[in-house]
Write a structure and sequence with these properties.
Blueprint: H1 3-8, H2 12-33, H3 37-41, H4 44-53, E1 60-63, H5 70-75, H6 113-126, E2 133-138, H7 139-142, H8 145-151, E3 162-167, H9 178-188, H10 190-202, H11 208-223, H12 227-230, E4 234-240, H13 244-254, E5 261-266, H14 274-278, E6 302-304, H15 305-317, E7 323-327, H16 337-342, E8 347-349, H17 354-366, E9 370-376, H18 377-380, H19 384-392, E10 399-403, H20 420-425, E11 431-433, H21 438-449, E12 457-460, E13 465-467, H22 470-475, E14 486-489, E15 494-498, H23 502-513, E16 516-519, E17 522-524, H24 528-537, E18 540-548, H25 553-557, E19 564-568, H26 578-584, H27 589-614
Parallel strand pairs: 1-2, 2-3, 3-5, 4-5, 7-8, 7-9, 9-10, 10-12, 11-12, 15-16, 15-18, 18-19
Antiparallel strand pairs: 6-13, 11-17, 14-16
The chain binds thiamine diphosphate, 1-deoxy-D-xylulose-5-phosphate and magnesium ion.
Length: about 625
């Protein structure tokens, strides 16, 4: 069925009913699979109106971040497959050019759409093609550096793109920063909206030009100088993002507009499902939930790495006023909730500005504060230059709490945190630690916060959890000799040197097979005494890490002897549960054992043959 033709055939009453049907379908599927519920519920009408006026099969509609593209997916040929979304082998939770070419540009990270759209528009022009190029971007994503860089070039590039701002005043948490205040004023200015309505109804067609002038002046007087117009874009709206007719009328009006334009659309994040409307932050990236109560389906008695990190930080910070925490719009995900509540003056949510967060932390560190930037591994990729140029070069004692290190699960390849060992390890002056479990993460953090640091430090930990209670774990917390590797099992022939999350699985394998297991909490520096002992006393040495092989921990060990590296090969990892992916990568217990036995057998056959040949 061609849903684009179908939605165009409906009158507004039926279209509204269809919007309801889409909402129910999204709620039903997300309740089973998890996903970006609130963001998607907010853009149902926006997507319908947009696709009645513009053509997703002909025009180029680029969705920023693309976590809000479920309606787009449903309308562009994926209705039946939708229940597979985010599941292993199923649809991606984001736009993906390998899924369909009507996902015009893949994303997952914030702020890429305007730049991509400008490139696409230029390419179309150079190819002699003529299609509309549009961007749909959230108010949160709009504030990221890359969006602002691209906005700044629109006029110079003679672009005609149309940018639709989905203005719901939310990033994941409340949106922050001056631009968000500007949008918020636009959104809530009842006077503006009312005045606009009155003017429209009172003035005749002939004075429309005057009306527009008046409207612009009014906009400026209420919100300050119009940010977008000062960049050379025409600014329309704000529109009611849940009024299909209002949206459609305005989209039609600007369809053939010859200038670059911005249309602000006010939406309610979580719209149409009371539970998510009331708490859009909780249902931004929702786990599976019970539809009637909204309760998340999760095991009881568990604690996540993020939670343990955040609670430990908040506790230690009670006694140390120098500790300050930074997030790039990820307060909830990184577990900084408690810290933010307890120490608002020492907590900084700088919006989606990973680069800035790194340098900001550097500034804090120069004057003796103890900054800790809690950030997902995949998003810290944005701050790579800043880590080198602003932090490491100057040996500034900034702690990078790298959450979601390793495979993250259902978010897939845009979000897996598999590159941080490689991108941090290559930088001089940086120390990197990878705890083996939650107790160890707490001890590592506690130690780092209680000692004098000589330069930047990273701790990496996964999107995972364990059974346990924070208070009990905190009672057992102790200072750790961080750079000392620990031999957790003494065995024969084979030695496994493991770092981070896979260590505990590897330990079971080692015990079962009477092999040596060394836990390398410190990826950098290497404990040279222990690694030399390992090579002197074992026939085959394996390294295990949850990260890419190229530039990873195993490669560091190659400087000391021959190592069989168990890590992620040179490929992007798909989406699925963390368990499924670790199995796929052979980094779970069975996989580690299987690979070691395979290599060990191969090596033994080779060595035996060699011996026979020599005698
Ligand atoms: C570079 C980067 N940093 C952080 C994130 C995490 N993140 C995903 S969506 C989002 C909020 C986006 O807000 P907005 O664009 O307003 O979309 P909404 O969900 O409100 O519709 C954030 C911070 C990301 N995807 N990419
Ligand atoms: C779209 C995005 O980048 C975030 O919403 C991300 O999906 C959150 O991931 P967690 O669920 O791991 O916090
Ligand atoms: Mg938003």
């Amino acid at each position: 069925m061609n849903y684009i033709e179908y939605i165009r055939s409906l009158d507004y009453e039926d279209l509204e009913k269809f919007a309801g049907k889409i909402r129910n379908y999204i709620i039903e599927v997300v309740s089973k699979n998890g996903g970006h519920l609130a963001s998607n519920l907010g853009v149902v009408e926006l997507t319908l109106a947009l696709y009645r006026v513009f053509d997703p099969y002909r025009d180029y509609i680029i969705w920023d971040t693309s976590h809000q593209t479920y309606t787009h997916k449903l309308l562009t040929g994926r209705w039946e497959l939708f229940p597979t979304i985010r599941k292993f082998g199923g649809l991606s939770g984001y736009t993906n050019i390998f899924e369909t070419k009507y996902d015009r540009f893949g994303a997952g990270h914030v702020g890429t759409a305007i730049a991509a759209a400008l490139g696409i528009e230029k390419a179309l022009k150079l190819n002699g093609e003529n299609s509309n190029v549009l961007v749909v971007i959230g108010d949160g994503a709009l504030t990221s550096g890359e969006s602002l860089e691209a906005l700044n070039q629109i006029k110079t590039l003679n672009s005609k793109i149309k940018i639709i701002i989905n203005n719901n005043s939310m990033s994941i948490s409340k949106n922050v920063g001056a631009l968000s205040h500007f949008l918020e004023k636009m959104r809530t200015s009842k006077i503006y909206l009312d005045a606009k309505k009155t003017m429209k109804s009172r003035l005749s067609k002939g004075v429309e030009k005057e009306l527009k002038k008046l409207r612009d002046a009014l906009k400026v007087s209420l919100t300050g100088e119009d940010f977008f117009e000062s960049l050379g874009l025409k600014h329309f709206g704000p529109l009611n993002g849940h009024n299909l007719k209002e949206l459609e009328d305005e989209f039609k009006r600007i369809k053939d507009y010859e200038y670059p334009s911005v249309i602000t659309v006010n939406t309610v994040k979580g719209k149409g499902f009371e539970i998510s409307e009331l708490d859009p932050e909780m249902y931004h990236s929702a786990a599976k939930f019970d539809i009637s109560s909204g309760t998340f389906v999760k095991e009881s008695g568990i604690i996540s790495y993020s939670e343990a990190f955040g609670k430990t930080l908040a506790k230690v910070a009670e006694k140390d006023e120098k500790i300050v925490a930074i997030t790039a719009a990820m307060k909830k995900g990184t577990g900084l909730f408690e810290f933010a509540k307890k120490f608002p003056e020492r907590f900084f949510d700088l919006g989606i500005t990973e680069q800035m967060c790194v340098t900001f932390a550097g500034g804090l560190a120069t004057l003796g504060l103890k900054p800790i930037f809690a950030v997902y591994s995949t998003f810290l990729q944005r701050g790579f230059d800043q880590i080198i140029h602003d932090i490491a070069l100057q040996k500034l004692p900034v702690i990078f709490a790298i959450d979601r290190a390793g495979v993250v699960g259902e978010d897939g390849p845009t979000h897996h945190g598999v590159f941080d060992i490689a991108y941090m390890r290559m930088i001089p002056n940086v120390k990197i630690y990878a705890p083996k479990n939650i107790q160890d993460l707490m001890g590592t953090l506690y130690t780092l916060l209680n000692k004098e640091l000589s330069g930047p430090v990273a701790i990496r930990y996964p999107r995972d959890y364990e059974f346990g209670k924070f208070e009990e774990l905190y009672d057992k917390i102790k200072m750790i000799d961080l750079d000392k590797w620990e031999i957790l099992n003494f065995g024969k022939e084979v030695a496994i040197v493991a770092t981070g999350y896979p260590t505990m699985g590897a330990l079971n394998v080692a015990k079962k097979n009477n092999w040596t297991l060394v836990f390398a909490r410190s990826i950098k520096p290497v404990d040279e005494e222990v690694i030399e002992w390992v090579f002197e006393n074992h026939r085959v040495v394996f390294s295990v890490e949850e990260g890419v092989k190229a530039g990873g921990f195993g490669e560091e060990l190659l400087n000391f002897g021959k190592v069989e590296i168990l890590a992620i090969e040179d490929e992007f990892v798909t989406h699925g549960t963390r368990k499924q992916l670790l199995k796929l990568l052979k980094l779970d217990e069975n996989g580690i054992e299987e690979r070691i036995k395979e290599v060990f057998e191969r090596r033994s056959i080779y060595e035996d043959a060699n011996r026979i040949w020599r005698t």
